Amino acid sequence: MRPRMRARRAARASAAALLLLAAGCGHLHWPHKSPPPPPPPVHELDVSGSGGASYPQSWKRNTLLVDLSSAGGTGGITVKPLEDGWPVRLAFRVTPGAFAVLTVKGDERVSLPINPTGSAPIDLELPPGLYTAKTAQLEVSWGAAPVAVQ
Q1: Which DSSP letter does residue 6 get?
Q2: Number of domains into which the chain is organized
Q3: Which domain holds residue 49?
Q4: Cα–Cα distance for residue pair 132/59, rounded to 1 Å
Q5: Looking at the domain assignment, is residue 30 inside a domain?
Q6: pLDDT at site 4
């Protein structure tokens, strides 16, 4: 009988150790990856308008990103290239629900509707042909969606 008693005691001790270990797992700090640091700010375009608000610029791969996530309601800015000219790709970061549409006028005009659902900022890349190397400036405005006239 002694071997059985020893086996039972060992099983109970193992079960108790597993329970203690499982209970402590919630308090352990498992290694995790921290989010990547934000991209460094750059100054590739001259941005003016909208009451002197600052809209940071950064590179996201090969696209220059102008961060409009702090913009809301209605407003507008004028964007001009510096000496080096326009970036090949240009995008604007917006917050869903802050305004309904982003309109950009260069050589052509485009209105980009913004889905109001979601909380994370989204990046709206401008389509090709909206501006060329000869474009003097882009007029960017945001606000409510235009009402269709019937």
Answers
A1: H
A2: 1
A3: 45-143
A4: 19
A5: no
A6: 72
Closest among 90, 38, 92 to 68, alpha carbons compared = 92
Distance between terminal CA atoms of the chain? 94
Residue 38 lies in a domain: no
Q: For residue 48, which amino acid is it?
A: S
Which residue spans within 61-119 are E strands per DSSP?
A: 63-67, 75-81, 89-94, 101-105, 109-113
Q: Within a domain: residue 122?
A: yes
Residue type, 107: D
Task: For residue 96, tell me if it sits in a domain.
Answer: yes
Per-residue pLDDT of the chain (150 residues; tens, 9 = 90+): 566 777 778 778 777 766 666 666 566 566 778 888 888 999 999 999 876 678 999 999 999 999 999 998 899 999 999 988 999 999 999 999 999 999 999 999 999 999 888 889 999 999 999 999 999 999 999 998 775 556
Q: In the chain, how many H helices and how many E strands? A: 1, 9
Count Cβ atoms within 10 A of the Cβ of residue 54 and give its class: 0-12 exposed, 13-18 middle, 19 or more buried.
Answer: exposed
Length of the chain, in residues:
150
